[in-house]
Description:
The complex is a heterodimer.
Chain A (H helix, E strand, L loop, with lengths): L8 E2 L2 H4 L7 E3 L2 H8 L9 H5 L6 H9 L3 H9 L5 H7 L6 H4 L17 H14 L16 E5 L3 H11 L4 E5 L8 H4 L8 H13 L3 E3 L10 H6 L2 E6 L5 E2 L12 E3 H10 L18 E4 L3 H16 L6 E4 L11 H10 L2 E3 L2 E8 L5 E14 L5 E5 L5 E4 L2 E4 L3 E2 L3 H4 L26 E3 L10 H20 L3
Helix pairs in contact in A: 2-4, 2-8, 4-5, 5-8, 6-8, 9-17, 13-14, 14-15
Chain B lengths: L2 E10 L2 E9 L1 H6 L5 E5 L7 E4 L2 E2 L3 E7 L3 H8 L8 E6 L10 E7 L2 H14 L3 E8 L8 H7 L2 E6 L6 E2 L2 H11 L4 E5 L2 H13 L4 E4 L15 E4 L2 E4 H4 L2 E3 L5 H7 L4 H10 L4
Parallel strand pairs in B: 8-9, 8-12, 9-10, 10-11, 12-13
Antiparallel strand pairs in B: 1-2, 2-6, 3-4, 3-7, 5-6, 13-16, 14-15
Helix pairs in contact in B: 5-6
Amino acid sequence: MAKEPVKAGELSALKRSSNFSEVVSGYSQEDALSEASRCLQCKDPRCISGCPVNINIKKFIRQITENDFSGAYFTIREKNDFPGICGRVCPAEYQCRKACVLTKKDSVFASPQAINIHFLERFVGDFGMNNKLEVVRTPDKKISGLKVAVIGSGPAGLCCAGELARLGVKVIIFESLHHSGGVLRYGIPPFRMPRDILDFEIDYLKNLGVEIIPNFIVGRTKELRELFKEGFSAAFLGLGAGVPSFLGIPGENLCNVYSANEFLTRINLMSAYEFPKSHTPISIGKQILVIGGGNTAIDAARCALRLQKMNNIEPDTTIVYRRTEVEMPARRLEIEHAKEEGVKFKMLVKPEEFKGDDRGFVKTLKSLECKLGEPDSSGRRRPVAIEGSDFKLDCDLAIISIGLQANQILTSVTPEIKIDKYGDIIVDTQTMKTSLKGVFAGGDIVGGEGTVIEAMGMAKKAALSIKDYLYSFC
Amino acid sequence: MKILQKQVLCDLQGKRIISLKVLAPQIALKAKPGQFITLMVSKEGERIPLTIVKKDKDSITLIFQEAGLTTKLLGRLGVGDSLYALVGPLGHATEIKLYGKVILVGGGVGIAEIYPVAWALKEAGNHLVTILGAKTKDLLILENELKSVSSELYIATDDGSYQRKGFTTDILKEFLAKDKYDLVYSVGPIPMMQRVAEVTKDFNIKAIVSLNALMVDATGMCGCCRVTVGGKTKFSCIDGPEFEAQAIDWDELAKRNCVYQDKEKHICNLNKFS
C-alpha cells in the first residue's frame, strides 16, 4: 500500500492566531525524504506541465530521495529564482499537484494523496537559503555594463532583476513605495510569507549588484523616456495589479469599509497591528465581514481575526462569498487554516447594500441569498440571486476583496505602450515585448491577476528577451 | 529629503503652522501647481499627503498645521534632519489657463495650497480676487504672498480680530451677486469648501476644490481616499485631488475623514502631545 502523505509541521491554531508568526513550519529533512519517496517517478511526469514555469519536478524530487538537496535546489533554480517564496505561496493544488498522477481524475483540485510538491520545494528552497547556495553568475561580456530599468519590486521585478544581474547587466529597480517586495510585502501577510525570507532574497539581489531606488514613481517622479535618455538600454515593467475593485453597491464608502488592499497594506506594509508603536491606525471590528473568495480575502480575514484576538475581542470574522467553497479561487490550505483559526464562512451571499449609523460607520450588510446556476466563462457555476431572499448581516467592519484593476499611472503618460480595454499592457507572449521599443512587461500588469509563479515565469521569459535585445547594442 | 529651511508661520498657544523647505531635486523638477507629495517622518511613521506649496531648483516647500501625531512629529524636525520617505509629485495638476476672472477662496492651512495655483493662474493672465479666512488673526498665513499675486485681496476672521468678522463664503456670495466670474477655486476646511459648493451652485458658476482625504500609498493602490463625485466613487489620489465642488458628497467625506479620530487622540496622548 502506498505511504500516506507527510504533513508539514505547523503551529496550532491556538498558538498562531493571536500573532503574525509563520503558520507552516514546513518539512524536516526526514519529512522531505519520506514525502519524496512517495513520488512514483512517472515515465511521463504530468506535474511538470502543471507547473507554470515547468520546473523539473520529477528530477528535483528524485534528487531529494538521493539526499542531493543542493542538486535539487539547482534543478528548481533553473526555472524558478525564488523556491523559498513559491514553496510558500504557490497554489500547488491547482497546478503541479493537480496534475500529479495521484490526483483523482476529474478532481477540481489536487487530491490529498497527490505529492506535496510545494512543501518539498519549500524545503529545498530553505536548504539553499540556509546553506547560501548560489547560482553561478555567467557574466556576458557583450552586454555587461549595460543598464536596465526594472519598474516595480514585486515578484516579477525581482525575478527579472536577478536574471539580468547574473549576466552582468546593471539593473536598477524603481519602487514607488518606501519598501521593496511589492505584493509580497504589502499584500501577503507575514504568517504566510515571513519577512526574513523576503529580505534574504532582496539582499541577495543587492549583493548581485542590483540597486533598488524606493520612493520613485516612474511616470511621475520621472518618465520612462527620461530613463532611456539617461542611458538605460531597456526597461521591464512589473507594475502589478494596482487598483482595488469595489462592488458598486450603496453604502460602500461608509467608514470602516475597506478594500482588502488597504486593510492588508495598513497591516503588512505599515505594521498597523503594532499601533500605537507604529503610527498607522487601523480599525478593529467586533463583527467583521470579508467579501470575496480569493487568497486575498482569506489573508484579510485571517489578519482581521488576529487583530480581534490581539485586542481581546471575541473573534467574529466571516468570509462572505457569492458561490460555494468549491468555487473559491483561494488555496485549499489557506481555507483550512482560516477555518481552524475560527474564521467563519457564509456562502451563496450577494451583497446588496451597506447601511450605517449617524456617524457614517457601517452597521449592516443587506444581502440576497444565491443558488448556483449554469457554469460561466470561468467554468465555475454562476451565482444566481434568489428574489425575495433578503436578509441582513451585522457588521461594524467590512473588507471588500473582489479583485484589482490595472494601475495606469505609467501607461497614462506613456501612450506608446499599448494597453487593452482593462488597462493591462499588451505584450507579445513569446517575448514579453510591449509595443514600445526596448520595453518589456510581465506579472499582473500583463493579463490581470495571476500567481506569484506566473509573474516570475513571465519575468524570466522577459529577461531572456531583454538579453537578446541588449545584443543589438553590441 | 533633507530639511533645508524651517519657518514657524504662526504659533497660537502651541497651535503652529510650519513651513519646511525640503531637498527634493527630482520632485522639484516635475512638480506642478495642485500636486502633492506623500511623506513619512520615521520608519514607524504614517504616510501622509501634503501639497507642494512652492518649488525651487532642487527643493520643495511644504506647509502644514500641527494637528495629529505625524504633523506634530514633523514639526519637531529641524534644519539638517531628513524625512524617512518622500515621494511625488502625485495627483493631477491644476488646469492652468486663461479663465478670465477667478475667485480664490482659502481657509486656514488650505491657504498654503491656494498659493501655487494663484501664482500660476496669475501668470496665465487671469484677474484674481482672493478671499482668505482664518479663525483668528494670528492663524492667518501667506497674506503678503497672496497679496502680491492677486488683483484684489479680502480677509475674514471668525472672531473679527482682523479685517472682516465672518466667513470667506459670505464675501464670496457678495462678489458673485454683484459681478460675473468665470471660476471659483477653493481649498480649506471641509465645511468651508462645502459652503463654497452651495454658494457657487446658487450662482451657477463652476467651483474647483482640492480635497484632503486620508491616504495610505497615494498611488491608487488602497482606495482609502475614495470620495463620491457625481454619484461615482473616485480616488482622490489618482483621480484628484481636485474635483468639481458641487458634485462632491461632502457629508460622506467629512465622516470618512474622522474614522481614526479616537485613535489619533490616543496616540497623541501616549506621545505626550496634547
